[in-house]
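Hey, weird one. I pasted the uroporphyrinogen-III C-methyltransferase sequence into the form twice and got a warning about non-standard characters only the second time. First submission, copied straight from the form history:
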Amino acid sequence: MDEILSKLPAFEPGSVWLVGAGPGDAGLLTLYGYEALRQADVLVYDALVGQDILSLTGPDTILEYAGKRGGKPSPKQTDITERLITLAREGKRVLRLKGGDPYIFGRGGEEALMLAAHNIPFRVIPGISSGVGGLAYAGIPLTHRETNSAVTFLTGHDASGEVPNVNWEHIAKGSPVIVIYMGLKHIATITERLVSFGRPKEEPVAVIFRATTENQRVVVSTLEKAAEDVEASGLKPPALIVVGDVVKLRPDLDWYSRFLDGNRGA
């Protein structure tokens, strides 16, 4: 391991690393991400980054919270990016740590563009997105030869917090599997639109809460009843919504609750 880590690039002072922390389980962090945590002078982290990952920082690393949560007071994106620039210009090794992957509904592209515009050296370290890792921990394959050869990743709300203005008809008719990030607030509207454009009411839906963590819970339902079942569960975000026949494979593939102590994925 030491030999591998010795070959990783140096985290240079005055630079910013945009790192994906993965969906929650600290074991899914990449080696690049782990080394960045050990070397960073300042860690600017998101709301969905868990304490077990934050604890991997060096003893002198300064932690700065910059979490954005829907419906709650949050730092403005421009303020976060300006802070990254300021810290880098002070000669700090700045780690911007994001849940999942920085470039998948993580605003990493916005931050990277601003860093580039200000000539701040940066590196992007991909992370395992919840749309991949979360499904795997829920016992749902993202693709399966007998069900789908295409997947659509979709955000459940736009920049204003409303249902995204996408072509719902094309999505409903064109993608056998739909993975929806941050869609719990609008799950009733989203499922109604999919049904209105031809998806069967009985099509399976899984809603994965706190994916890959010890608090993971999965609600399995249908397009017709998903909103009702989620409300009855009393579970709260973060959550990921999966629509499609791959959900039917969960009873056989749910390794997380079948083979781990405590039945944690139920």
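That's the output from the first submission. The warning seems to come from a hidden character in my clipboard, not from the data itself. The mean pLDDT is 93.
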